[in-house]
Write a structure and sequence with these properties.
Blueprint (H helix, E strand, L loop, with lengths): L2 E4 L6 E4 L6 H19 L8 H8 L3 H9 L13 E2 L6 E2 L6 H31 L5
Antiparallel strand pairs: 1-2, 3-4
Helix pairs in contact: 1-2
Amino acid sequence: MAELKNCPSCGNLFVQALRAVCLECHRAEEARFQKVYTHVRKSKHRQSTITDVTEATGVSEEDIFRYIREGRLSLANLPNFSYPCEGCGEPIREYRLCRSCTSRISSGLKAEEKQREWEARQIKNKRSTYRARE
């Protein structure tokens, strides 16, 4: 159901139905995306870096990073494009986290699971050692 909200970009009041921003901000966002997309679609610009594209189009790096994360820009034909890992900021070309952050989180989760298993065994052992007298 549609809801009345203030646009997070410009502050204007709008009816939020499909988009999180007002129509004017959405149109401006689409125009920025089209500038980037049109620029990198040309074969002579496919070797560009994100900084080069930012300078040529005037679109911020943060916006370009968002287009990549949203899947609107594919890195398959853009070998010099990368975006920062959400954990440490290292440049990556796929997913949201780099390998080191992924392995750090994974090992932390495994350690947490082992701790929970150990605590469950301790509780089970305490229950089995106390018996009521008959």
